[in-house]
Amino acid sequence: SWTLSFTAPTREEAQKVLAGYIQYISDIVVKETLENIRNQLEIKTRYEQEKLAMDRVRLKNQLDANIQRLHYSLEIANAAGIKRPVYSNGQAVKDDPDFSISLGADGISRKLEIEKGVTDVAEIDGDLRNRQYHVEQLAAMNVSDVKFTPFKYQLSPSLPVKKDGPGKAIIIILAALIGGMMACGGVLLRHAMVSRKMENALAIDERLV
After folding, report:
1. Are 75 and 67 in contact (CB under 8 A)?
2. pLDDT tens digits for range 61-112
3. CATH number for domain 11-165, candidates 3.50.50.60, 1.10.287.210, 1.25.40.10, 2.60.120.560
4. Residue 89 carries which DSSP code?
5. Which Gene Ontology MF annotations are present (predicted)?
6. Of 26, 50, 77, 82, which is most buried, counting CB atoms within 10 Å of its CB?
């Protein structure tokens, strides 16, 4: 396991800094997690919308092709004089696989009317309708800001048992030593300057003599 700790001038400040750091990291993780979820939702919604649009085009093209075939079948049925559906009476009836006329001109005309009246291909395709509902639910979904704990610690921030770093006594001793060294240095420097002045004065006296 890992232990997270901070050093501060006082115990209370150390506890406060540690708690603030934990909260700061938690807020960042929560924010990044929510942004990632929103991005994934947006990508998924866009993908499903584009796929749904392509399938709509495919089904619309298929519907247009069926309508055109029915037009041809109606022309053939009228040319053959078949107005009513053809019944086999138990016998096999051979029909054109491309342009069926077994419904007769009346049946084909009615079927053509129905298919031409379709304004939304989802009306005749249950799978497309289900997917359209799914896409609408995705588009309406909104990931709001929520508060959650991204990770947990075994213990909450507590007051430190002992104070980290040098104690007051050590700090006082070091300060005294540094002060003494600076004082000695000042005395030596002053003594050197006085000695230098005396030497210069003696040299001048000797020249005068």
Report:
1. no
2. 999 999 999 999 999 889 888 888 877 555 555 777 778 888 888 999 999 9
3. 1.10.287.210
4. T
5. protein tyrosine kinase activity
6. 77
